[in-house]
Design the sequence.
């Protein structure tokens, strides 16, 4: 064998020895770490082996694993048992106890650093007007309501036309409120009451009204100062109550109640009750002192849309006291039952 071949053989043998030692060291280390550990089969054999006589009669301390409360699951597709959770409080108990005794005095009465956020968390920003984002209570709105635009035929054979409407313009708290109620019979204006009022909201569903009232029609005209309240009473009764003071010591009072009973979303039954009283006689207008007249109406309307509703109904009117005496003296009737048909429109 030449010298070159001998060197190659020695180098190869040295590489094999080094590779074998490298593979043997991890196995030896693992065997050393597993000393004292028992495989399941060996543990079973030791458990079955008899206890030596030298250990019999002696107490042996056995450490038991802490018992774990199990939670029974029986809902949905979760059926079985699992260890019951102890919650956040027990999980953080060790953390809180480890913080016991820590000195936090440096955190008290400390001043914020110069670059800290502003105390009101605004970072220097201030509220300003936002075009197009104005609240609705800053807007002026208006509405026209013709509550009753109707034709009537009573039990005495008389026909008449009747109007009851109002218009308001303003904001939520203050409005200009115009009202008109009148009756036309035999081709002429029998009675018309017009009011111009300043409406001021004093509660969520109530407002005061202050202004003027003007009466025209048969007889001389009358002008009154008006003060009243209007709103929504309990059980959703629309209420109007107004006091009037006129010339020559005349006084009057008027109360009206309305209620909308929804039979369906479009079919509505509306009862209406109105009472008028006066402080002194006014023979030229056929009005007597005390309770003057009472009116009760029942109208059934169908809202084709919210702002347009035809209706039919019946109205009973009764003159009372001195007013009834003036009606009889003029050859009129003290009461009548009217059958009405009309429209209720608002926009």
Sequence:
């Amino acid at each position: 064998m030449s010298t070159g071949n001998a060197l190659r053989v020695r180098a190869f043998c040295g590489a094999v020895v080094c590779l074998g030692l490298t593979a043997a060291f991890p196995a030896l280390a693992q065997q050393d770490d597993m000393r004292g550990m028992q495989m399941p089969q060996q543990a079973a054999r030791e458990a079955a082996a008899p206890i030596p006589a030298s250990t019999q009669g002696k107490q042996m301390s056995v450490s038991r694993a802490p018992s774990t409360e199990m939670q029974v699951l029986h809902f949905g597709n979760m059926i079985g048992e699992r260890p019951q959770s102890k919650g956040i409080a027990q999980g953080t108990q060790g953390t809180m106890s480890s913080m016991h005794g820590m000195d936090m005095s440096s955190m008290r009465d400390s001043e914020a650093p110069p670059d800290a956020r502003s105390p009101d968390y605004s970072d220097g920003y201030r509220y300003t007007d936002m075009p197009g984002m104005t609240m609705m209570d800053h807007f002026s709105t208006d509405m026209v309501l013709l509550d009753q635009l109707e034709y009537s035929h009573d039990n005495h054979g008389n026909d008449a036309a009747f109007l009851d409407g109002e218009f308001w313009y303003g904001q939520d708290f203050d409005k200009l409120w115009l009202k008109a109620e009148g009756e036309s019979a035999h081709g002429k204006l029998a009675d018309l009451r017009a009011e111009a009022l300043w409406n001021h909201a004093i509660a969520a569903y109530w407002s005061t009204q202050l202004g003027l009232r003007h009466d025209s029609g048969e007889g001389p005209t009358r002008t009154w100062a008006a003060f009243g309240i209007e709103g929504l009473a309990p059980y959703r009764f629309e209420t109007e109550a107004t006091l009037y003071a006129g010339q020559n010591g005349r006084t009057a009072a008027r109360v009206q109640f309305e209620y909308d009973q929804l039979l369906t979303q479009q079919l509505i039954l509306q009862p209406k009750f109105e009472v008028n009283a006066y402080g002194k006689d006014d023979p030229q207008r056929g009005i007597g002192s005390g309770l003057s007249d009472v009116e009760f109406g029942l109208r059934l309307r169908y809202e084709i849309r919210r702002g347009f509703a035809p209706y039919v109904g019946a109205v009973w009117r009764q003159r009372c006291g001195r007013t009834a005496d003036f009606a009889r003296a003029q050859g009129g009737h003290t009461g009548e039952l009217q059958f009405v048909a009309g429209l209720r429109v608002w926009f």
About this structure: DSSP finds five helices and 15 strands in the chain.
